[in-house]
Amino acid sequence: MGKIAFVFPGQGAQAVGMGKDAYEAHAGARQVYELADRVLGFPLTELIFGGPEEQLKQTANTQPALVATSLALYQAFREKGIRPDFVAGHSLGEYSALAVAGALSAEDAIRTVRARGLLMEQAVPGGQGAMAATLGASREALAALCAEVSGSVGAVELANLNCPGQIVVSGTKEGVAAVAERGKEAGAKRVIPLEVSGPFHSSLMKPAAEKLAEVLATLPLAKAEVPVVANVTARPVTEPEDIRRLLVEQVYSPVLWEDTVAWLIAQGVDTFIEIGSGSVLAGLIKKTDKGVAAYSLNSLEAIGALNL
User: Fold this and answer.
1) Which residue of the set 26, 90, 91, 277 is catalytic?
2) Rounded to an integer, what distance in angstroms lies between the CA atom of residue 32 and that of residue 36?
3) What pLDDT was estimated at residue 127?
4) Could you give the CA distance from residue 191 to residue 156 in angstroms, rounded to a whole number?
């Protein structure tokens, strides 16, 4: 059998009610949600299970909610005794991956992503930043278009390289609008504006990264027991100081998800297990390579049905 990678979703995967079945039926999962409520000092679990959705979609709530849900579902999944050769997470999901790899505690992961979410919300005043997904454009052509628009209209950069032909751009409202308008020049068949509260993974997030660096400076990190493939480099990281540095850079750097998946496949990974809300990553992985197996463990039922 080939190697196994566990992967963890990021912002956009949230849904009201996520993880509720695990909370109700699994003591370990319930403990994670109770820990989140205790650490944050407010009933996050009530918001996750009952909404309102608008409140759950606020970045500072979404981030701890998704990490808590991934770690709760992981507690239920652990009993199967399957061990990963590598772990990775999409943007925010990197914190879930680091917790599963033993580099930081669940408590610290939840607390840190709450701070990260608040800092990201504060970095750019509402309405000044934007993000959009482009479909069909090549990386090189889109990067060239972004550079041209940045020079004449407003900053816009590649933010998420998700899978072949799916790239998210991020930057000023004007810059993103100009790329959307001129997307065909880079071969884009469609450009879809995203509902986000800021221009994530762009240089406009550097103020948030600087403040996050102060938070991370005091964060207790251990050596990862399993290699964590970092978003910024699409290469494995295990040492605490490298992890710390890359988490700061990650806030304003592109998420190299397609490169991460390609690198993992090159190492012999043929089974990807997505743990957390939704099934976005399994879809992106299959679009990168149809020949690999990708499972989404987004409920207790899905965990029970997994047979490897």
Assistant:
1) 91
2) 6
3) 80
4) 14
Burial class (CB in 10 A: 0-12, 13-18, 19+), 275: buried
Is 91 assigned a catalytic role?
A: yes
Q: What is the CA radius of gyration of the chain?
A: 18
Cβ atoms of 123 and 198 closer than 8 Å: yes
Measured distance CA(242)–CA(246) in Å, rounded: 6
Beta bridge partners of 280: none
Segment 263-288, tens digit of pLDDT: 999 999 999 999 999 999 999 999 99
- Is there a contact between 178 and 103 (Cβ–Cβ < 8 Å)? no
Catalytic residue among 70, 90, 201, 277: 201
Q: Are 48 and 65 in contact (CB under 8 A)?
A: yes
Is 201 an annotated catalytic residue? yes
Buried b (16+ CB within 10 A) or exposed e, 155-185: bbbbbbbbbebbbbbbbbeebbbbbbeebee
Other residues' Cβ atoms within 10 Å of the Cβ of residue 265: 19
Is the separation of the CB atoms in 183 and 98 below 8 Å? no
Residue 49, Cβ density class (10 Å: 0-12 exposed, 13-18 middle, ≥19 buried): middle
- Given a contact cutoff of 8 angstroms between Cβ atoms, the answer to whether 92 and 66 are in contact is yes
Q: How far is 202 from 190, CA to CA, in rounded Å?
A: 21
Q: How do residues 118-131 score in pLDDT, each as one tens digit?
A: 999 999 877 889 99
User: pTM of this prediction?
Assistant: 0.97
